[in-house]
Amino acid sequence: MSETVPIEAVTAHAFEIPTDGPDGKEQDGTLTWASTTIVVVEVTAGGRTGIGYTYTDAAAAQLISTKLADTVTGADALAPAAAWRTMQVELRNAGKPGIGSMAVSAVDIALWDLKAKLLQQPLYRLLPAFRDEVPIYGSGGFTNYPLSRLTEQVSEWAAAGLPRMKIKTSRDPESDPQRLTAVRAEAGDGVELFTDANGALTRKAALYWADRFAADWGVCWFEEPVSSDDKTGLRLVRDRGPAGLDVAAGEYGFQLPDFAALVDAVDCLQADVTRCGGITGLLQVSGLSEAHQIDLSGHCAPAVSAHAFCAAPHVRHLEYFHTHVRLEAMAFDGTLRPEGGALRPDPGRPGLGLDVKWPDLERYRV
Ligand SMILES: [Mg+2]
User: Fold this and answer.
1) Residue spans of the chain under pLDDT 50
2) Which whole-number Å values give the CA distances from 169 to 173, 201, 230, in the listed order?
3) Residue 2 belongs to a domain
């Protein structure tokens, strides 16, 4: 196919969906939330429609409508990276990091989904794929779960064959020993156990808990022990923490320099394809992690991450996050079920393999 395929329309929608947590809330070390907003983008060209999404405020849908839609309309649907560059320029004065980058990510993912559909390929096959499946870890374990819900979730992950699991910690550090003991007992010794403090701890508290997490419960992954704004603190915990405990961060990386600032502060870099500039941005982050010889782990949004991280040579795993697994099953037909501790994109479905369940989502529109 040598001719260009002009993009005809870009449309953004926002849906706010309540959590299924206790009293309608989910909680981690530093935040409590009652709902999650997904911004869904449709891009049409050549008789096909591409779908992209991000998790952010509904304001991103507005930003897409007012700033990005006209920029992308008329561009070549077979050249997503060129449209990505144009969007970055367009947002210069409106603000590229944060919501700006999440808006770009959702449009970029829709553009890649569209190109794959036009070429009748599953998205991961269109990308420079190093693999056809990505290992996953169960993620949830919110700090407001009672122990019964916590262990129930762990047993669901075990039943799904997940050999790696992550819980939120450090909201109330004194409660963590009881929570981790219950989780380890339910999961068994063979499961890799991860913790995520979401930046709740001071440097010295993080060092203390790093030692205890590893020694007492065999934890091997400590995510955002201190705030990701404190790169020196992350590096301190990485370098002085126990040898068997990897420090990870990167979920708030929006632009490539955000990741460049982290590569010498963590053992494993994280990236969220729905925040870091979509597929086009993630390919750049992947190159950065490769240059620094550190692994990359996918943050959240499993339905798109399963395709995107097939193109990351040093991917370690991606996050099978309870909130997004539940929401994506509500929003899309074609989401993937874990198989052998991994997500394997369907080679028989073009693009992301997702169909939006518009009638089911309508009641949540904002
Ligand atoms: Mg996290």
Assistant:
1) none
2) 7, 10, 19
3) no
